[in-house]
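quick one, 211 residues, struct below
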Amino acid sequence: MRSVYVALLLTLTSLHAARRSLNSINDLITCLQSEQTNILELLHWFACEVEIDRNNVIRLTFDPSSGDYGSHRYRNLEGLLESPPRGYQYYTIGNIHQHTSVTLPTYVVNSLRRNILWNSARILIGVNEGGAEAGEIIDQVYITQHYDASENQGSSYDPEHTYRITTHFLRQLKELSINEIQRLAQSSQTGSFTNTSAAHSQKTPRRAGRM
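---
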């Protein structure tokens, strides 16, 4: 009975963690995850790669089942996320050691920031695989990372470093260059970080170039 209770508690803890949302660059920079991994670079690439229409519908521009950009199916065996609706499938993106014909850009693979836990950060997406636009529509976007090797958790993802990413956040990432984002992260680590979301929202939006 005790083992059942512990398993249920761990599942509820994982789901609670996955429901936490990040709505801006400031939200992510204040997380330890932004200092330890290349998640800022990976998420910036993803935001610029996908298409977001005026109705906030997110569309893929590549096939995650093909292995492109270090992607593959994520079965959610540890119950990190809620069970996907019928017709949906989770995928994980960002394995920099996965050999594919389409690889992540250099600024993601070779992040210039310190304290990088190599190949730890991942993006998880829920994809609608039914209907007329099967495999194109993204319903959910999360970031996560593998447990540290010292925790002996194998290849599982850490629920304490799992967050849902809002469409607003993705749009904000599109408007900034990777150099601007990295400067914000460096300022945060040196203690000179200031909230730039309000100021940036007053600028004329511009689409970040592909890198």
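The mean pLDDT is 78.
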